[in-house]
Structure formats: C-alpha cells, structure tokens
Amino acid sequence: MTISSHAGYPRIGADREWKKSLEAFWAGKIDEAAFLQQQQEIRLNHLRKQQAKGIDLIPINDFSHYDHILDTAVMFGIVPKRFGYEGGAVPLPVYFGIARGTKDAAASEMTKWFNTNYHYIVPELGGAEPVLAENRPLQAYREAKEKLGIEGKPVIVGPLTFLKLSKGYAAAETDEWLHRLIPLYVQVLQELAAEGVQWVQIDEPVVVTKLSEQDVERLGTIYKTFAEAVPSLHIMLQTYFESIENYRDIVSLPVKGIGLDLAHGQEGNLASIRKYGFPANKVLGAGVIDGRSIWRADLNEKLALLDELRKTVTDDHLIIQSSCSLLHVPVSAERETKLAAELKGALAFADEKLDEIALLTKAVSQGADAVHNELNAAAEALRVLRSSAARNRRDVQEAVAVIAAQEPNRNKPFAERHAVQQAEWKLPLFPTTTIGSFPQTAEVRKARQLWRKGEWDNEQYEAFIHNEIDTWVKLQQEIGIDVLVHGEFERTDMVEFFGEKLEGFAFTQNGWVQSYGSRCVKPPVIYGDVAFAEAMTVAETVYAQSQTDRPVKGMLTGPITIMNWSFVRDDISREQVAYQLAYALRQEVEALEKAGIGMIQVDEPAVREGLPLKEAEQAGYLAWAVKAFKIATSTVQDSTQIHTHMCYCEFHDMIDSIEAMDADVISIETSRSHGELIHSFEQNTYKLGIGLGVYDIHSPRVPGVEEMSGMIDRALRVLDPQLFWINPDCGLKTRGREETVASLRNMVEAAQIARNKY
Ligand code: GLN
Ligand code: ZN
Fold it and tell me: What is the pLDDT of residue 681?
C-alpha cells in the first residue's frame, strides 16, 4: 500500500499563536509551566490537524521552541561555555540564551538554512564533550502516541548535515567529531527502536550540495553503523531543496528509505532514477508536492509523475510526500478572505498541501477515478489563474520581450562616465553618504498606522513625512554629509512598499512564515505580470531635494531583491519575473531622473540569497540577475550616478558579477566580515566606485573616529582612493536618533582625517 507523509509542519500556528506564546514567555507574562503547556497544545493541535487530513505517517519532533538545529545541539549537550551549562537536559533559559543572548553572554551566530529565508542557530562545537542530554525525539514520539494514538515518524537532523552546519572545529577534526556524535545518535535510535518506533526521518540536506569523496565515505560509515546498531528501525534518509549529487552512492546506503525532492530537484532526481533505477528493497519517499511554493499543484501532472515512478518502484515501496518541510510556506490559505477569487483558488499553503498529498495517495491506491472531482477542481483553479487578465498583460510581455533581447548597457564605460560625473557633482575625495533609511521611530510608525486606518488624511500624513524629511535633511547637512537621502520614512518595508505600488502583486492577511525564532515574515505574492503604474518615490525624493543644495540620492529596491523576498508565480521562469520587475523599476529610475534626481541607488541586498545550490546553475542565475539590474539602471544619462547597496555576505565568489552590474558606486558591509572582504579585493581589483561600510549599524554602540579611520586605512590598502566612498554598512532605520547623529558625526570626522592624509 502506498502511504502519505511529509517532511515537517510549520510551527507558527494559523494565528501565529506559537510566536505569541514565545514572546509572552520572553516578556515574563507567562511562566515556564504555562509556556510549556501552551506549546504542547499548539503541537498537539497541529498533529490533530494532520491526523484529520488523513496523513498516514505524521512527522514528529519537527516542532521546536525556536529552531531544529539548536534542538539538535542541545539534545547532545552542545552548549557554548559562556552560558554556564552544567550538564543534564538543557534548561529553557539556557536554550533561549544561546538563541537570543543573555545579559552576560552573546547569542550564537544565526545563518540562512540553505537557500531558504529560514535561519538556524549555528552550533558551536569545541566546548564540553557531547553527551545525550535528552532524547527529544523519543519524548515527542511518546507524547503523540499517548495523547493522540499517533504512530509518529521522529525527525532528526543527520550527523553529516549537523556537522557541516556547525562551527568551532577545524576541517581536519571532522572525523573526530563524527565519531563523538555517531554513538550518541545510535543511542537515540536504539531508544526509539526499543520504544517500538517504525520509521525515523533523518534529514541530510547536505547531500544535494557537492560532496567530497571523504564525505561520501563518511555517509557510508554513519549509515552502516546505524544499520548495524538498529537493524529493525526504518530510516528514511531525507534529502531536499535540490536533486542529489552522487545519486548512486546515496541510494545504496544501508537505509530503508530515501526521500527525494521531486519538485525543485525533479529534473536531476528523475533523470537519475531513469538512468540508474531505484533499489528494489528500498522505499522511495517521493517528494512530489513542492514544499516551498504557495501554489496549488497540477495534480494530473503529479499523477503522471507518480505513474512513471511506479514503473520502477512498487506501490508498497512508495510514500507520497512533500519535497521538503512545509516550514517554508504559510499555514492555511483557507483564511484568506480578501484575495481575488482567481488568486485564492490557486493557493495551497501547508494545510492545503497535506490535502494534495492525501489526494494523490488516494488516487494511487484507488485509481484516479476515485478523486475525479478533486482533480478537476484543481485543474480548473489553475486554469482560471493562468487565463486571468493579470497574467496576460500583452503590454508588459511584449515590452519585456524586446528589452530582454537587448544587452542593457550604459552609453559609456565606467571610466568615461566617472569623468563626466566628477565634473557634474564636484564631490570631495572620499564622499560621505548613508544607505537610505533613517530611524523609524515609534512616532513614525504611529503616523503610518493612523494614516492606514484612515484616521489621518493624506495631507496630514504627507505633512508629517515632510517634517521628518526636513529634520533629517537639516541634520545631514549640519553633520556635513555629501550625498543626502530622504530617509525612507514612508516605507514600512523595502519590498512591501514597492509591491503595493506595482501591479501584479497581492498581499495576504495571514501568509506568515518563520524567518528565525519567533520572527515571521509575510512576503508579498507576485501573481501576475508586474507593471509600473505610477511614480513611487519621486514625490518624497524631489521634496527632499527641494530642501537642499547638496545632491539627494533616490532610493529604490532592486528587481532581484523584490523577487527573492516575495512568493513568486511559478508558471513563468524567475528570470522572466525579474525582467518584468526590472522593466517596471526602469520606469521609476527614468521618472526620478526626469524630475531632476541625478543620483539613484537601487538596493540589491538579496542577490546572493537566490544563488542556486547547484554550482552548475549559479553562473546562469548571476548572469540574469546582473542583466535585470542593468535593465533597471542602464538608460540614464552619463552624468546620472547609479548606486547600489548589498548587505553583508560572502562576496568572494561573486565579485565578478557585482562588477558586471556596472553600478557607478556600490556600498557594502565590511565591519563584521572585514578581513574576508578586504582579502577578496586584494585578488580582484574592483574598478568602480565603492563604499565599504565603516561601521556596523546592527548595534546601538557609537563607534569612535579612530576605529573608523582604521577601517578606512585598511580598505585603502587595496582600493583606489579616487573611487572610495565612506558610509555606514546598512540602513539606519533600526537605530535611535541620538546614536545615529553621533555615529555619523564621527564618520564625517574620519572622512576629513582621511582627506588630509591621502
Ligand atoms: N535602503 C535600505 C535602507 O537603508 C537598504 C536596506 C537593506 O540593505 N536591507 O534601509
Ligand atoms: Zn544593507
């Protein structure tokens, strides 16, 4: 019999009750007992829901109070020394201390979970010897069984993935660490087997990345040890986010099941199955329902895919599941009451995906006729959206086709533009500027709310915004900054702001997903062809410019960042969506220029987030990402200075692409990853204008002049002084006013010192 399962359920709850419970606990509004009670209720509710939807094999231990990687670390007593942990089950205050910091100890680092927008807490190895502090999967299994009679599938992060994501050890110590961890895993698995657990899902997403020969050997060691220690336990080795490299090695590991991503990884994985088959003694976890898309699946297509798989895999060796954990999609589309019917009908969030999985399973076991009506309904919903006016904008499609066929270059190469711009702007050596936003105080947020609720009319709100702009234009002038910004007071969020003004976007009421800890984001939905409707930033920018003689830099969010921070339609390629966005933004750039704004910054902090996991696909992505940026920015006059901004990230593998964007000036973070970034510039002389952030805006601390001077000196060892700008490393919207002014004063003083010196 074919059964249904999936790889994990969202924690946050349909009403974000999980988030609320966490925050109430952190604020001291509820005590630990009440917190644990609430968390259990949420967890059990989620299990009940999955039970009701007819999921046969329900994952457990996918729930967490914060993050599953942190859970794995504390399960093994891996707690950095500074938290004063003394063994045994890790107490909640220590657990949250690692995640969020305490008054005495800094939090552990947080970083992106593969190419998703979920962030995990990076385990720090190297402290005390790991031990099995607490068998969390076992607790979760007992709870589900006792309370709900569920025969759950404990989910555990696999040893290789856990090690690869951890820090605090040298590469040469990998095997040592593995041999410390393997016995602990064995203990967990043995206790599970003794309890009667049938299936365990062990997540090893690292196998979709390029593995070294040694890593393949390590996998062999790990899973052979497990197989020998717990022969009765069915291990589902779960992979996701892409097709697996080393297909033959992976499918011959001694485990009962292999979970494959047949959505994002469909092409590669299917090709491997076609070419090499699938071992007859193994169960295929067929991840046919895309765990990262918010769209309904084309179920007929999925059934055809399953039919193909069934030629290789017998029905009793087939589990129909999601391609990855449903953590990456919102909980339930049912509660969206304000979306257009054509859009709402085509959405499938986590709960709807469970329905799809159950439906496909039924179709496989009873024949497609048994679910005939549901299949038709799904096909019809997709047809309606596909044929909607929003997805068939000929004006957009034709214009974008013409533009995409051209090479979007500026009129002149940078060196020539640079001369024209120097003559035009007459900026001093080491011009100073900021990244765009100024403090979004409680007052600013309040004003926006009042206006949104209709309690303030447009004039009132505009007057308020103008007043903020006035204040900050004066401040910037007085501090002595060379290139000013208006401050972005009218924006809640750099993507939402543009999404609300462009056509082709929709906003959900409840489409939240967990980003890190209790922090959730509600990405806009790009569901139609994207089109420019009217100027979005011209009024505020022109107003700011009217208040000063110094240049005011216009401020836009770039096409790739808007796309990577949204849910994107999947009926056309992301490349096409990016070009549509770029074309719309080009019209805004042109409108700004026409209105007399001669410096325009197009932020692209999220370019790297979209980088495909597969090395072979990275160059292609970067090429069209660069092209999209250039489509948006290349039609301006030589004297118009295009800026861009990217936040911190590992640029070493991207410098060529950044250069290819051909922005006259780029500002990037260096204060936190200083050494590395400077190092990459040593090997690759960057030939365009560049501002390396001279101070970290993520902390309220006011950096001293000397500290920033040191930063500038170090950067100038590898960068051309004629092309160097001085700026903070990101926008200042999260900072307070006093500290911002004090920091910027010091920054301008450091620039002055540098001018005298070079
Ligand atoms: N212009 C934006 C700001 O200053 C850039 C934010 C970002 O890089 N994430 O807020
Ligand atoms: Zn930034």
Answer: 76
Report the separation in Å between the CA atom of 603 and the middle of ligand 1, taken as the mean of its atom positions: 7
| Listed residue (651, 615, 610, 640) closest to 628, CA to CA | 610
Please tell me the distance between residue 104's alpha carbon and the centre of ligand 2 in angstroms.
Answer: 28
pLDDT of residue 64: 98
Distance CA 325, CA 241 (A): 10
Burial class (CB in 10 A: 0-12, 13-18, 19+), 146: exposed
Q: Which atom of ligand 1 has the smallest separation from the CA of 601?
A: 1
Mean pLDDT by 10 residues, the chain (758 residues): 97 97 97 98 98 98 98 97 94 96 91 94 92 97 98 98 96 96 98 98 96 97 98 98 96 98 95 98 98 97 97 98 98 96 98 98 96 95 97 98 97 98 98 98 96 96 98 98 98 96 97 96 97 98 98 98 97 97 98 98 94 94 98 98 85 86 92 65 82 88 94 91 95 95 98 96
Residue 600 sits at φ, ψ, to 5 deg, of -135, 125
The pLDDT of residue 682: 74
Tell me what pLDDT residue 227 has: 98
Q: Which ligand 1 atom is the nearest neighbour of the CA of 436?
A: 4
Ligand 1 nearest-atom number relative to CA 435 = 4
Residue 449 to residue 440: CA distance in whole angstroms: 13
C-alpha angle 540/546/548, rounded to 5°? 115
485, 489, 643, 645: residue to mutate for ligand 1 pocket, most atoms within 8 A of CB:
645
- Which ligand sits nearest to residue 729's alpha carbon? 2
Using DSSP, state whether 281 is helix, strand or coil: coil
For 668-683, letters b (16+ CB in 10 Å) and e give bbbbebbeebbebbee
Residues ≥6 apart with Cβ < 8 Å to 464 = 447, 456
Task: Give the separation between CA 355 and CA 349, rounded to whole angstroms.
Answer: 10
**488 known member of a binding site:** yes
What tokens appear for 533 in the block? 């409707």
Q: For ligand 1, what atom is nearest to the CA of residue 733? A: 10
* Chain centroid offset of residue 415 CA: 36
Q: What is the DSSP string of 691-724?
A: EE--S-TTSS----HHHHHHHHHHHHTTS-GGGE
Residue 169 identity (one-letter amino acid): Y
Widest distance between CA atoms in the chain? 81
Q: For residue 611, how far is its CA from the centre of ligand 2 (angstroms)?
A: 18
User: Nearest to residue 614, comparing CAs of 246, 219, 158?
Assistant: 246
Q: Which of 117, 433, 434, 435 to mutate to test the pocket of ligand 1 (most atoms within 8 A of CB)?
A: 435
CA 743 to chain centre: 30
Query: What distance in angstroms lies between residue 482's CA and the mean position of ligand 1's atoms?
Result: 19
* Cα-based distances in Å from 708 to 453, 602, 615, 730: 43, 25, 37, 15
**Which residues form ligand 1's pocket by a CB distance below 6 Å?**
435-437, 488, 494, 555, 603, 605, 645, 647, 730-731, 733
Shortest CA distance to 122 belongs to which of 72, 181, 177? Answer: 72
Residue 650: predicted pLDDT: 60
- Whether 698 is catalytic is yes
Whose atoms come closest to the Cα of 606: which ligand?
A: 1
Give pTM, 2 decimals.
Answer: 0.95
Residue to mutate, 117, 485, 494, ligand 1, most ligand atoms under 8 Å from C-beta:
494
> For residues 577 and 106, what is the distance between their CA atoms, to the nearest angstrom?
40
User: Would you state the pLDDT for residue 386?
Assistant: 96
Q: Tell me what ipTM this predicted complex has.
A: 0.99
Ligand 1, atom 1: closest residue by C-alpha: 436
What is the token pair recorded at 551? 């240049």
Confidence (pLDDT) at 437: 97
Q: Whose CA is nearest to atom 4 of ligand 1?
A: 731
